[in-house]
Amino acid sequence: MNAGIDKLSPLLAPVLELAREHAAEVDGEARFPTEPVAALRESGLLGLTVPAEYGGLGCGPHEFADVVSALAAECGSTAMIYLMHVSATMPLARAAPAAMPGLLSEVAAGKVLASLALSERGSRSHFWAPVSRAAAEGDTLRVRADKSWVTSAGHADIYVASTLTPHGDAVDLVAIPATTPGITVSGDWRGLGLRGNASAPVTLDVELPTTARLGEAGGGFALMMEAVLPWFNLGNAAVSTGLAGAATDAATAHATAATFQHLEQSLSALPTIRAQLARMSIEVTGMRAMLRQTAEALARPGEDAMLHVLGSKAAANDAALRVTDAAMRVCGGAAFSQHLGIDRYFRDARAGHVMAPTADALYDFYGKALTGLPLF
Question: What pLDDT is stored for residue 258 in this prediction?
């Protein structure tokens, strides 16, 4: 961890305690992690990346990655909710909607939990390509869209949603308060992992003032690429890193404590077990190093910043699959029977790989960027 996260420790500690206390229940009941999210509101951490002039903490990508990783080690669902909040906050900070002049201050004060509503049923994991189209009626925008995988659906206070402009194929981002008539959450979220993040479909049939738009008309795609994607990918890699680190710690503790009574030795006395633990630990060390490099690339952008953005999520997602799988193998029946919590890390880690932009799509984008081809 860096010096910034040390300063945040007093704010983060009570959140981590509640996330740890309720993680198994949140997972088992597939319920929203109300307690740690309430603590996030009270802590000021919802304003982590909000500029100080609006009452935020004014922190950067290093602190963000560390906070998300620490949350994921306790509760993957809470970490994903927080990741989506910050990913929605960044375009709001870049191009705040004129209709909501006090929005960033409310985010910083913990009054607003934000989320993204980008993916659509019609374009699936291609979140950057909405098929819905807004209709313009004077100073009003009518947005009709079937949004998929909306984290914190029914719990967020504001949604940052995408739609095609009324004319042409450009994209707009709009800020939609949760109190706006015409927002319908479709069913409960029941997933293999991240079972508490309320990632449900949301149907939009809303009327908004044109001033609810973020930035200029048609500027949504640039905001997604410049203000959403880098922070989302960094945060997603941080979730994978936190899960993998926690699984490694849990597997190491179990292997050290569990014994073969007839041999009078611990599980860790087996060379094969030690080798598995070593590979896991080394892989997590590499994940953390790449996470720091990506955070630095966002803090001080250079020519290779896009490569870091594209590669960080894909590499971390794949590494988390390997590490959590190894943790299950090391701990055997104790992990499979859910006695250690490693099964939760294992299941939660599967989400990142298929979450848009998927790891496979990112490898393709990385290859395009590496060879000088346009991404789209």
Answer: 81
Domain CATH number, residue 180: 2.40.110.10
- On whether both 292 and 358 belong to a single domain, the answer is yes
pLDDT per residue as tens digits for the range 202-243: 999 999 999 999 999 999 999 999 999 999 999 999 999 999
What residues have CB less than 8 Å from 143, skipping those under 6 apart?
Answer: 132, 134, 161, 163, 174, 176, 204, 205, 206, 207, 208
Name 373's Cβ contacts closer than 8 Å, sequence gap at least 6: 367
* 240 and 213, same domain (yes or no): no
Same domain, 118 and 198: yes
Strand partners of residue 174: 161, 213
Amino acid, single-letter form, for residue 63: E
Of 197, 190, 4, 224, give the one whose Cα is nearest residue 94. 224
3-class secondary structure for 235-281? Answer: HHHHHHHHHHHHHHHHHHHHHHHCEECCCCEEHHHCHHHHHHHHHHH
pLDDT of residue 13 exceeding 50: yes
166 within a domain of the structure (yes/no): yes
Q: CB count, 10 Å around CB of 6?
A: 11
Decide: helix, strand or coil at residue 368.
helix
Highest mean pLDDT among 26-30, 261-265, 337-341, 372-376: 26-30
Tokens of 247: 């699984």
Distance in angstroms (rounded) separating the CA atoms of residues 108 and 101: 13
- Domain boundary residue, one of 48, 80, 108: 108
**Host domain of residue 143:** 114-217
Residue 183 is encoded by which pair of tokens?
A: 């927002």
Could you tell me the two tokens for 34? 């109300």
